[in-house]
UniProtKB/TrEMBL annotation:
The keyword Iron-sulfur applies. GO terms for molecular function: 2 iron, 2 sulfur cluster binding; dioxygenase activity; iron ion binding. The keyword Iron-sulfur applies. Keywords: 2Fe-2S, Dioxygenase, Iron, Iron-sulfur, Metal-binding, Oxidoreductase. Residues 41-154 form the Rieske domain. Its EC number is 1.14.12.-. This is Dioxygenase hydroxylase large component. Belongs to the bacterial ring-hydroxylating dioxygenase alpha subunit family. It comes from Azoarcus sp. (strain BH72). Pfam families: Rieske (PF00355), Ring_hydroxyl_A (PF00848).
């Protein structure tokens, strides 16, 4: 039996959330339906499918989908399912399928937008409803696909806001990431990392703006970085990025947290005028951007001191170090993180090298930093399965958040505003009485019954 709206609403309070939202498989299944069945979800970057027939597999919640470049140059997103017996048409990963898809089971073929192309021994279907134009013989397309500056999103619902409206204030993070290239374009490069976490997907989003954990959870890496720097007599970039977690609480309090509709947001430092000229890599980068955009704009682009951005349901783009951590729920207690790194077209190679170094040292499976987070996420998952209490606290700086025209802001970077904002969105999605996908399925069922 599906949980009632009253029961779901009671799980989220202004200052806390019931631990069931992290541990109950029934709630996880509803999230797949009501959040991932409606929201725009990042499926990949256009640069991952450069040529006709190139594809990239991914998931929208619990749904396996394929992002593919068709002959018309457009990027399509289709469910990875053959309409014959249901086999997944392509294996997981990236590849090129050529001019069409061919199912590995009985060789039904499909155009690159998923529509039916052909099948062997057509005689056997004579006298049936078989018709290449009959959608029952095609791979099904995801309801809506759109791209923002090359970042492709898909929504399983035919209704709802357009992508730009959905992204709201966090579209500016994608803008800044692209503008760091003198031609305004980026591409996925250098391979991707994957990390399987033994925790619920929402914990990762909450931690992205959890500044109170940095100097505690990451003590081992920033202390080691400081010791190493002292021995070297300097603080190279590799150690500097680990050292940052050791900033005192006063540092984190000065950051600003922006919260937007749909659970999105970002964390921003005060504009950093030194960012453009601080080190040789930045100076070279600044020179290239100055040529492209003029000095003032170049300084503005590099000075935007934005840390993790949250696109709720999709993951976290990072502008300064050019990456996108794609967050994919696998089950109530398993989450796959895929880390994509971007090359800024036209920027010096050293900028890309620095992005790769950041990904290696901070986010990769062999990082000194990420395993600290993965460990505490797992502890939250396990602790919440004990009988030691039912509620998870979101109290910090409650009541001090300021409304803005498009969301909320906290001028204290240690506020738990981002978590409260995420759960406000969660509640909105989860209480939707008739999610479009569910309704469409019901309508189809009703049509069948009356036919
Ligand atoms: S399952 Fe795909 S052709 Fe039979
Ligand atoms: Fe962390």
């Amino acid at each position: 039996m599906t949980l009632s709206n009253e029961a779901l609403a009671a799980l989220v309070r202004a200052d806390s959330v019931h631990k069931r939202v992290y541990t109950d498989p029934e709630i996880f299944a509803l999230e797949m339906e009501r959040i991932y069945g409606q929201a725009w979800i990042y499926v990949g970057h256009e640069s991952q499918v450069k040529k006709t027939g190139d594809y990239h597999t991914t998931r929208i919640g619990d749904q396996d989908v394929i992002m593919v470049r068709a002959a018309d140059g457009k990027v399509h997103v289709v469910y990875n399912r053959c309409p014959h017996k249901g086999a997944k048409v392509v294996a997981e990963g990236d590849g090129c399928t050529g001019k069409f898809f061919r199912c590995p089971y009985h060789a039904w073929t499909f155009k690159l937008d998923g529509s039916h192309l052909s099948l062997p021994l057509k005689n056997g279907l004579e006298g049936t409803c078989y018709d290449p134009a009959n959608p029952d013989f095609s791979m099904k397309a995801v309801a809506r696909v759109d791209s923002y500056r090359g970042f492709v999103f898909a929504s399983q619902s035919a209704e709802g806001p357009d992508l730009k409206t959905f992204l709201g204030g966090v579209a500016s993070s994608i803008d800044n990431l692209c503008e760091r290239s003198p031609v305004g374009e980026v591409e996925v490069a250098g391979g991707t990392f994957r990390v399987m976490q033994k925790s619920n997907w929402k914990v990762f989003y909450e931690n992205l703006h959890d500044t109170m954990h940095a100097r505690v959870t990451h003590e081992s890496s920033f202390v080691a970085a400081r010791e190493e720097a002292a021995a070297l007599g300097e603080m190279p970039f590799e150690l500097l990025i680990m050292d940052g977690n050791g900033e005192p609480y006063e540092f984190w309090e000065k950051l600003e947290l922006r919260a937007y509709h749909n659970g999105h947001g970002y964390m921003e430092g005060i504009f950093d005028p030194t960012a453009a000229t601080r080190d040789p890599v930045s100076r070279d980068h600044f020179a290239v951007l100055t040529e492209a955009y003029g000095e003032e704009k170049a300084r503005q682009i590099l000075g935007m001191n934005r840390h993790n951005t949250i696109i709720y349901g999709s993951g976290s783009p990072h502008t300064v170090f050019q990456q996108f951590r794609v967050i994919r729920p696998v089950s109530v207690d398993r989450t796959m993180i895929e880390i994509q790194t971007f090359r800024l077209k036209g920027a010096p190679d050293a900028v890309f090298d620095r992005a790769l170094t950041y990904a290696n040292l901070i986010n990769s499976p062999s990082s000194n930093v990420m395993p600290d987070d993965v460990e505490v996420y797992k502890r939250c998952q396990e602790g919440n399965q004990t009988r030691g209490g039912d509620w998870v606290s979101l109290h910090r700086y409650l009541g001090t958040d300021q409304e803005t025209p498009d969301g909320m802001v906290s001028t204290n970077g240690t506020s738990e505003l981002p978590m409260r904002n995420q759960f406000a969105a969660w509640k909105q999605y989860m209480l939707n009485p008739a999610p479009t996908r569910q309704r469409q399925a019901q309508e189809k069922e009703a049509d069948r019954a009356t036919a």
